[in-house]
Structure formats: structure tokens, C-alpha cells
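Researcher: Go.
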Amino acid sequence: MREDLARFSYGRGGERLVATACDEGQPGSLKNLLKPRRNPTPCLIMDFILSGVAACGACLVTNPLEVVKTRMQLQGELKSRGTYQIYYRNVFHAFYTIAKVDGLAGLQKGLVPGLWYQFFMNGVRLGSYAIIESSGYIHTDGRVSAPKTIIAGATAGVAGAVMGSPVYLVKTHLQSQSTASIAVGHQYKHQGMSHALVAIYREHGIQGLWRGASAAVPRVSVGSASQLSTFSAAKELVVDLQVFPKDSWLVALSAGMISSVAVVLAMTPFDVVSTRLYNQRVDQRGKGLLYKGFTDCFSKTLKKEGLTGLYKGLGASYFRIGPHTILSLFFWDELRKLYKPFR
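Model: Structure:
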């Protein structure tokens, strides 16, 4: 019997069932189409939560490297080579120096805001990308499209950068704080994340909490575009080469390792500029005393320190961003696999 109008009914568990006009026995019949329509909201929320948790797991391992990277990027700020004292000769010397002078706890400075930053920023960034990816946008004729993944990664990165900017500001301040004998960059006197957020808000208002966002947006968008586009392409390549079984955890790990190299090379100059903008001294109105903004910082660094100034701390950047990229993408991919049966 042909149904002339769409009908609604309810299942035993109270699920809303949707039917369309169709003939019973056809592929689109009432019998085949009478299925529960699930609310997509919980799945979307879980995409963000799983992404944030994956990034936090990586942060626990890599935060000491973030401290080292921050110090090396601030060392010799706007000074020509040979005109400033070098406290940190390389990554390993920086580790030793910080641990010796500030203690082992000094290597975990900024961990709390670091975890919050990863949860908010990467939760939004990776969660947004996961939604875009699952919608099929990044594929063309069943294959990963480089232009689409770059656009999707950059868009997701912008959203994450804006969301996480206030805690990144505090994280940078706390990680640069050190004993006077090895101090580099401007030294803030925050007593912790909450104290820093309140102090910045009271002195400079809500805008002060987003100071440095002009650098965070290009930094994260470039890093996100290079990371997610190379990760998606590398996963596809590894599967095509049949190096590992399609569902093996080694696929995501290998793709993350490939992606980490591209991320560090693309992101380091933006990372240096971002660190310096966030950490610079400001006047009573909250305006920077060294740099007016992203372009000013970039050009001044290039002029005073040369191209090597924009890649200052490159080794530290890889030791930090590399493992963080590998671990966060690996955890993210595996957590999504574990959650997939529950969708």
C-alpha cells in the first residue's frame, strides 16, 4: 500500500522514528527507512573532548621541551649575534642549566596553563577538523585533496588560536620566569595561572587577555594547515604502500612523524614571533613596548638577527613540536577509533 504522506512514530525506547512516502518492498521503503534518528550533538561534543584529551596527553610529555624552546627563543632578543650573553647553548645545555638553577620543577613551569591551552586550542582545532573530515569535505573522488586539507586545517587553526590565546599568554609568561642569573626576556612576577589571568584582566581589561592573538592566529593557522594536511596525506600514502595494515596504530604514528618535520619548518618563524609578542613588556594601556604587532616583530627580528633569528631555537622547536605533533595526532587518531563503535 502506498503511503501518501510522511509519518512519525516512536520506538520502544521513545526514539523518534522518521518515515517518508514510499512503497513497502522497495529499497527506500517504509520498512527500511523506519530507523531512529540520533541526535548528533553528543558526537560533536565528543570530537572536541577527545581532541583536547589527546593534546593534553602529549603536553604532559613535552612541556619541559616547551620551557626550553621558550627560553631559547627569547635569548638575545633584538640583539646581534655576539653582543649578548648566552645562557643556553643548545637544547641539552638548556635542560641542564634550567634543572641546575631552577630545579627540576623549573622544567615543568607553565604546565597548568599548558594543559588548559592544549585542551581548549586543540580541542577546538582538531575537533573542528574531525567534523570537516567526517563530512567528506577534504576528499575529492575518494582521495585526500591537498588544497582542501590546507584550507580546513588553517580554518580549524584560526578557531583554536582565538579560543586558546589567553592561556597561551599566561603560559609564555610563566615559562619565561626564572632565576635572575639565567633570565631571558621580560620577567613577569605571576604566582600561577589564576593569579596571572586576574592580574592581566584588572590591569588591561578583557583586551589584555587576548594580547598577542595577532601572532597566534597566523602561527596556529600555518602550523595547523601544514600539520593536518601532511598528516592526512601521509596516512593515505602509508596505507597505499601497504607498509602496515590499514587499521594498525603504526599508520597514525608514521604519518605523525612525517607531519612533524613539515610542521616545525613551517611554524618556527611564527612561533618565535608569537613568543616574543606574548612576552614583551607593555605600557599602562597594554600596548607593547618592543613591537607594535606581528609584522613589526617579524621585520625587526629579521633586520636585527637575520633569518637565523626567526629560526632561533629550531632544535628545541623540533624536540618539542615534533614529539608533541606525533603524540597528539597518534592519541587523537586512536581515541577516535576507540569511540567510533559508540557513535
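Model: The chain has a mean pLDDT of 85.
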